[in-house]
Amino acid sequence: MIKKIIAASVLILLITVAIVQAMDDGKEKGKEGPQKSGSMKIGEKAPDFELNTLEGKKVKLSEFKGKKVLINFWATWCEPCKEEMPHLEEFYKKSASDTAVLAINIDPENDVKGYAGKMGLTFPILLDNQEKSKAVNERYGVAAVPSSFLVDSKGIIRQKFIGAINFDVMKKSIGQLK
User: Fold this and answer.
1) CA distance 139 to 116
2) Nearest-10 Cα torsion for 13, 15, 16, 17
3) Domain of 101?
4) What is the per-residue pLDDT across 94-122, written as a single tens digit (0 to 9) for each?
5) Is 106 among the domain residues?
6) 103 has which bridge partners?
7) Which of 94, 91, 47, 41 is nearest to 70 (CA)?
8) pLDDT < 70 regions, the chain
9) Considering the domain boundaries, does residue 143 fall inside one?
10) Which CATH number goes with the domain that contains 93?
11) pLDDT single digits (tens) 124-139
12) Which of 151, 24, 128, 15 is nearest to 73 (CA)?
């Protein structure tokens, strides 16, 4: 019982931090939109990585050179992530052939495959199960989930969103990339 209370408290704290951070960044810009905080900056080359899919296939970011890429970091326990997943699925199904979606799960010790099946997700889900110092979410400076990075066809990070985004934001933002 104590463990559940502690886990619930930590979850509430993480969600609160993410919301406050997103609201503060939005106030700085004066509107909602891409966030530019965190260790990876807009205009930097997206760090390459290699992760396994749910099916065990290895996927490298560099395989998508020449395509626009939406990289989404998420977790099974994250409520905003759960709300965002249908939008990500719709975007994946309707995205152009020059666009890739990579959803990176940061809690692979949980039943990610069961979660994906229950949600009806068909986009590639990568498991960030590397040791903390090598974890992709650490290299990208992900402080809250969901967080999304939009990478242009040359591998440069052009936008970063902290918090859930919807289909229209995904479509508009990726459409602005070259």
Assistant:
1) 25
2) 90
3) 33-175
4) 998 999 999 999 999 999 999 999 999 99
5) yes
6) 72, 125
7) 91
8) 6-39, 133
9) yes
10) 3.40.30.10
11) 999 998 777 689 999 9
12) 128
